[in-house]
Amino acid sequence: MCYMMIHIFIAIIFIIFFSLLISLTSKNTPHLLPWNWPLVKLLPTAYLKSHELYDRLTQVLADNNSTILCKTSSYTNIDILVTSDPCNVHHVMNSNPSIYQRGSEFRKALDFLGDAVFIKDLDEWKQGKKFTHGFYKEAEFHNSTPKIIRHTLEKGLIPTLLHMSEKGENRVFDLQEMFSRFMIDATCLMATGFDLASLRVGFPHCPLLEAMDDMGEAVFWRNVLPERVWKLQRWLGMGKEKKMAEACIVLDRVLDGFVVRKKQELTSFNQTGDDNFDHCNRKFEPDFDVLKFYMSSGDGSCSKKFLAANIMTLLFAGRDTSAALLTWFFHLISTNPNSKNVILEELNRNFPPEKHLFADAEELSKLVYLHCALTESLRLFPTAPVIIRDPTAEDVLPSGHRVGKSTKIILCSYAMGRSPEIWGEDCSEFRPERWMSERGGVRHVASHRFLAFGSGLWACPGRELAFTRMKAAAATVLHNFGVEVLEGQRVSPSVSALLTMKHGLKARVSSRWL
């Protein structure tokens, strides 16, 4: 889940489309692309019904043996290979990770992350995993995680939902926004030790959240527009690049405040609080935070710029991916009441009514069916619907397709989640039972067949933490509140870097016994 931003597939479709027009209208260029070329069929969907793009792409791949290689004209000098073949995925992600890199365009689109190691190619990505493993292996980190989750539930999620339930039937709110605020608060506490307290009654304005949203939108357009266009916008200070520049100022100021205040705490033991970070009597000092861990290491290896960039990366990764999945999860169980009832029975069987919140990994491990339901949600709606790699050398994939340095490799995890060859004929159904092992645990599926957390050396190191937080939030909500997802609302995925809901998910809640 650490892949927080990816190239947007729709942009590549239009690049190829214009290349096609040039190729077919030029007298001097041979016609490299026939009109029945598979991706051309996606153009009306991409333009008129973008919310159906990934479903249509899934069908196109199914009709073409799970892999499409499109050769464009010499004007673009770029070939596109789209695949949902697990053998190809294993070849790219597991067997030859040094050949298939993220590439320079990926880094240019995310240049605001600066020294963040998580956007680098393989060698520096390995260093990034060392960055996280450095604190993941600390006992204090694991001891503080349930305390942070408990605090965020007790001071943020539960009071907010209680307020919503007291308002009666007319109180409608967006589940996606609520989970987004819950995740940024928990992530900020883990990363910096400071509580943003963005999840409060009324969903108050939070400059950091707004800045992150503006950055995400700007990154989308950086991948849609030609590089020269968005760089011109940046130079002129207009369009989405203007918002990006303003968001960077906000984020830099907030991150600089985190680093400066943490330095003060470490040098002068200043524990007096700060109005910029402590809100509504929610002051909370975790036993461990990432910023303190690296600033107090004493080896001087982490500069202020390096720390700020990587804390920013943790905030992005920890917020959007988990919040998006929780939203899809509540949508799916609302349309599959039998699965929802099994989850409620599992909660009632393992915990008494007076158990109001869930934060400990050991107690959450009892909720096997809930874990399976979240994983099934991730199969159908992977937060990163496509992953893009650039070959650094010529190669031949297991499917027999030859690729080179001018080829864009697109691994479509969305299509993989709906592949009958991988999941059977019921692949389009929400069925958490497919993840249950014969012994009653969670069944393991090879990462090159279930690409939600990356694979091989590119695997996300935060998988267990993500599941702990998602299970804690889902269990606390379902055990204490009845959730009614509004009928008739338009539920569709956004075509963006992450598979969020385009219009959010509107719901009402009622208290069970609080």
TrEMBL record:
Iron listed as a keyword: yes
Statement: the UniProt record of this protein carries the keyword Iron: yes
InterPro entries reported for this sequence: Cyt_P450, Cyt_P450_E_grp-I, Cyt_P450_sf
A GO MF term: iron ion binding
Compartments reported by the entry: Membrane
Keywords, ordered alphabetically: Heme, Iron, Membrane, Metal-binding, Oxidoreductase, Transmembrane, Transmembrane helix
Top-level taxonomic group: Eukaryota
Binding site for heme: C460
Cofactor: heme
TM region(s), chain numbering: 6-24
Main localization (coarse): membrane
Membrane topology field: Single-pass membrane protein
GO cellular component, one term: membrane
Family, similarity comment: Belongs to the cytochrome P450 family.
Record protein name field: Cytochrome P450
Source organism (scientific name): Perilla frutescens var. hirtella
